[in-house]
Design a protein that fits this description.
The complex is a heterodimer of chains A (about 350) and B (about 300).
Chain A: H1 3-47, H2 56-81, H3 90-106, H4 111-130, H5 138-158, E1 168-169, E2 175-176, E3 178-179, H6 189-211, H7 213-223, H8 225-230, H9 235-261, E4 263-264, H10 271-284, H11 289-313, H12 319-334
Antiparallel strand pairs in A: 1-4, 2-3
Chain B: H1 2-39, H2 46-62, H3 68-91, H4 99-121, E1 136-142, E2 145-150, H5 151-173, H6 175-185, H7 187-192, H8 197-222, H9 229-244, H10 249-269, H11 277-289
Antiparallel strand pairs in B: 1-2
Classes of the chains: A mainly alpha (about 350), B mainly alpha (about 300).
Chain lengths: ~350, ~300
């Protein structure tokens, strides 16, 4: 190796470091603005003499945006990092929700332990769900993940412990010093802050993973599996890891969602839900943290707007459901890499 | 001893009950498998094409008072044309794009069509006017009890077999059919042999849609039609295609009947709630244990 090569190598390393630092700075800035915004939305009611400034409906939507951001970030481990399409991500979301509900209702666990357990249990489900990825990929894996989620849904519909089709009502609200429902003007604020912190943590975690040895292994597998194998990367381990990480975070989101709505039913396990999460990933751009948040925000807001349009115009059907298939078709035609994704994602 | 004969009767009766549905699954699966074999796309819209065929048949019978066979012809032509236009307008521009883009387009299109039809025709289920007479036919007896099949189911089974036979003859003897079989083995080479790729793909889509439409009419005659019917049925067709071996028509035929019978057995002996799940369990197991299915050939991965 010549001296010149060594020097070039060093400068490349320095550039990478610099880029990393800029990304981290941008992330911190985004976090600070996000936190300010969330705090303002949550507690501005106290500042105004008339009381309600932000209606509870808006707060509900903000919570939904945060939950779907977490789900989108978590699906990114599978669909972004290792580049495999998963049509079954709702299975982990629902599994976390059910696990948390059953643990707090039947076993009287506190929310915090049930929340952690939901992530762990959901992560364990990620192993059998990810196992097919070791043998198939692409089209076939997409169908397997779909089938897997459907099987989970049928089980939830038929077991007694999950309450069958009617689901589980009356899930307790979390407590931290005080009951969550008694914090803030509407009782939704503590949930919003918790969801925001979780989303921020996952975003940070994702950016760290991307820069790490693991992240580079993911990239190698995504770009060329056979070459990655030849470089001595343990493909099976990293593929399972991607599925498990995605499942753990989706499980957390499920637990939080269940305690927020205080109710779970097999509705949250439907394939429409899975496809919606995948649409968010694709719309925002796979592997883009910014894209995950934007994708989730846009695709939570559009249906809400269309729902109200339906009520205003008195349409007999929901225009959203038609639009959203159309968005997928349009994205694939116009910008297959999503808003903030880079071109190489769907290379093959 | 008596207990045993009773069980034997129940099993045989459930097998007979599953036959008609199994044949319908086979029809749907052949539509999947021909398209996948040639274009390599999981045509997620196949369930919707099947639904549109079922509705076309419904309107032919309910509004124009056609009898079963003309209505079937209408449905076949409509659904075949729909499938062909889907290929023309949505898949053809993406022919050079990565497969994942095609898969997601197909998924989006399937949602689009499903909910568009739900908006047009309301989501309520509709029953076909009576087009086949109903009577119970005694077939034979097992353990002293008579095994029966309804005349409607029997007619549908016979019609399905007729269509399958026609398909076999078409594929085996006609020039287009032979080209399709060859294309499913090696699409690039067949282009070199002077076959127009896009024309062949269009014909394949028409055939696939036509078979789906026929299946839709049969389901409509036996049960009812609604805009959501394609979601599950389409996927079951795919399950059957995988079980039979993707690309193999005979495999689909056998696997469809196997799935119909299995579902009938599960709902008879385990629980009706798990009836629709059994197919997915089978599909996952097949893909993990023997990805080529019963009669399929191997898809080699190229470096």
């Amino acid at each position: 190796m010549s001296v010149r090569n060594v020097i070039e190598g060093a400068s490349v390393a320095r550039l990478l470091k610099l880029r990393e630092r800029i990304a981290l700075g941008g992330g911190l800035l985004a976090f600070a603005f996000g936190a300010l915004f969330i705090l303002l939305v949550c507690f501005v009611d106290y500042l105004s003499p008339s009381g309600e400034v932000v209606p509870p409906f808006i707060k509900h939507i903000i919570f939904l945006v945060l939950i779907y951001s977490i789900l989108t970030l978590s699906l990114n481990f599978v669909s972004g990092f290792i580049g495999q399409v998963s049509f079954g991500h709702a299975a982990f979301f629902g599994f976390g929700a059910y696990a948390s509900a059953i643990l707090t209702l039947d076993y009287r666990w506190s929310f915090w332990t049930a929340f952690l357990a939901a992530g762990v249990i959901s992560g364990m489900l990620g192993i059998p769900a990810g196992a097919p990825a070791l043998r198939t990929k692409g089209n076939f894996l997409a169908v397997i993940t779909y089938g897997f989620a459907e099987v989970v849904r049928f089980v939830a519909l038929n077991l007694d412990i999950t309450g069958g089709p009617s689901g589980l009502p009356g899930i307790p609200t979390p407590r931290l010093f005080k009951d969550f429902s008694s914090i803030g003007p509407t009782g939704k604020e503590a949930f919003i802050i918790l969801a925001f912190l979780l989303a921020a943590f996952i975003a940070y975690f994702t950016s760290r993973v991307e820069q790490s040895r693991t992240g580079r292994a993911f990239a190698a597998i995504r770009e060329d599996e056979i070459a990655a194998l030849a470089m001595g990367i343990n493909i099976n381990y990293y593929k399972l890891l991607a599925f498990v990480l995605g499942a753990v975070f989706a499980g957390f989101a499920g637990s939080l969602f269940a305690h927020y709505t205080r109710f779970v039913s097999p509705e949250i396990l439907t394939s429409d839900q899975s496809v919606l999460i995948l649409t968010m990933v694709i719309f925002g751009g796979p592997r883009s943290i910014k894209g995950s948040f934007v994708g989730a925000t846009v695709l939570v807001l559009i249906p809400e707007v269309l729902h109200s349009l339906k009520d205003i115009l008195g349409l007999p059907y929901d225009p959203w459901l038609i639009c959203y298939g159309f968005i997928l078709i349009l994205m694939m035609r116009v910008r297959p890499q999503g808003l903030f994704g880079d071109r190489s994602i769907f290379a093959k | 001893m008596k207990e045993g004969s009773h069980v034997a009767f129940a099993v045989v009766q459930q097998v007979i009950n599953g036959l008609a549905l199994g044949g319908i699954y086979s029809l749907i699966a052949i539509g999947w498998t021909t398209v996948f074999g040639i274009v390599g796309v999981i045509n997620w819209t196949h369930g919707e094409v099947y639904m549109i065929g079922a509705f076309a048949g419904y309107f032919a019978v309910a509004l124009f008072h056609l009898s079963l066979l003309p209505a079937l012809a209408v449905a076949v032509i409509v659904s075949g044309s729909v499938a062909m236009s889907i290929d023309h307008f949505c898949y053809r521009p993406l022919r050079a794009a990565p497969r994942v883009a095609l898969l997601i387009t197909a998924l989006g299109l399937s949602m689009f069509l499903r909910y568009l039809c739900a908006a047009l025709w309301t989501p309520d289920p509709r029953a076909y006017p009576k087009v086949l007479s109903y009577s119970l036919i005694r077939l034979f007896s097992v353990g002293g009890q008579a095994v029966t099949i309804s005349s409607m189911h029997l007619n549908i089974v016979l019609l399905t077999l007729l269509i399958m036979a026609g398909l076999e003859i078409f594929l085996g003897t006609s020039k287009v059919g032979k080209a399709m079989l060859a294309a499913s083995q090696d699409f690039e080479t067949i282009g070199l042999m002077g076959v127009e790729a896009n024309k062949l793909i269009a014909i394949t889509f028409f055939l696939s849609g036509a078979l789906g439409g026929a299946a839709g009419v049969f389901v409509g005659v036996l049960y009812d039609v609604d805009p959501m019917m394609g979601a599950l049925a389409g996927l079951k067709g795919w399950v059957v295609a995988i079980l039979g071996g993707v690309g193999s028509i005979t495999g689909s035929l056998i696997a469809g009947i196997v799935l119909g019978i299995l579902e009938s057995l599960v709902s008879g002996f385990v629980s009706t709630g798990y009836r629709d799940a059994i197919g997915f369990v089978i599909m996952i197991l097949v893909l993990l244990i023997k990805p080529t299915g019963l009669l399929g050939f191997k898809f080699e991965e190229k470096v």
